[in-house]
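Repro:
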Amino acid sequence: DMIFDVPSLISFLSEGTTLLSGTVILTGTPQGVGFARNPQVFLKKGDRVAIEIERIGTLVNPVSEEV
């Protein structure tokens, strides 16, 4: 469950900047992932985080160091 829905986020962000075609808005981690699991699961060096947009492509970022 998100505090603000996606249309509200887009509205808020567009008040201060122009959202160009292709802008990616990341909303953070939803409930039920890593921290809430037993045992807990966290990103670590060597993991890859990917986002995909149909018919456009995939953006992949490697995790480079532990925090």
